[in-house]
Amino acid sequence: MTILNRSVERSIKIIETVSDNGVCSLAFLADHTELPKATILRICATLVRQRWLSQSRSDKRYKIGPRFPRLNPVSDVVDAFIETGKLEIVTLSNRTGLAVDLAVSIGEGRVEIVDTTRQFSLHGIFPDTIGYRPSPFRSGLGAAFLAALDAKELSAYSKSLIANTTGRDREAALKLPERILEIRQAGYAKREEGYWGRAVDYGGVPSAISVAIHIDNKAIGAMSLVWLAERNSMESVIDEHLARLSMAAKAIGDQLSSNACFATK
User: What fold, for 75-262?
Assistant: First the structure.
């Protein structure tokens, strides 16, 4: 019987966790891999040196590095998405006084946040979200995107996503059919109350409402209004600003419809 290399197995587990979640703190990796922090630090230091991972100087979080093999480059699509959306999210943020997150589809039913207007001094919520891949089941962005998929895509992706969930994500995943119906009837998704996508211990807990972004009825991403939960009620934000959020999402989709990057997507 071949003896497996535990260091390689642990390295793969860490890379998979970072790849699945976009940006990860040490605490998040420890929570999701169940490995000791000292072990994670040693492995990540090696992966950073080889540039398979990169580490932020400001908050020490990890993300996939420039030398990690990528089979499906999507940089042109993401750049176009950010460029088209940046004016709309800033305008929406200024008009509502709330933060706005913009997320693009990365395949398999997941989205990744690629731009945000969050400012801690202004909004009181954790601002460093770019590169993060929120829960498909508990976040507003993830759930809004799933609800916008056609029946075939939703069936295929949800099975795969549910098979790889644990804990509270799995509890939420098992309730997905009911939530999808609620989102489609309401026209927006809510962030699960108390949901916090990463193991962080600073900043207030946010609330959010989200809608999908479409090109020709095909979901390509999602966007959220985000605010400090203690400052505004969900009902007041929906009443005052949902229409603006939906109009901004439509404007982004309309502008992207003529972009060559999305012509065959």
Answer: Beta-Lactamase (3.30.450)
Give ranges for CATH 1.10.10.10 in the chain.
6-64
User: Which DSSP symbol is given to 204?
Assistant: B
Band (201; pLDDT cuts 50, 70, 90): very low
pLDDT at position 199: 45
Q: Which residues, 6 or more positions from 124, have their beta carbon under 8 angstroms from its beta carbon?
A: 203, 204, 228, 231
Confidence of residue 165 (pLDDT cuts 50, 70, 90): confident
Residue 82, both tokens: 């950010």
Q: What is the pLDDT of residue 162?
A: 82
Q: CATH 3.30.450.40 in the chain, residues? A: 75-262
Task: Tell me if the pTM is above 0.70.
Answer: yes
Alpha-carbon dihedral 124, 180, 111, 63, rounded to 10 degrees: 70
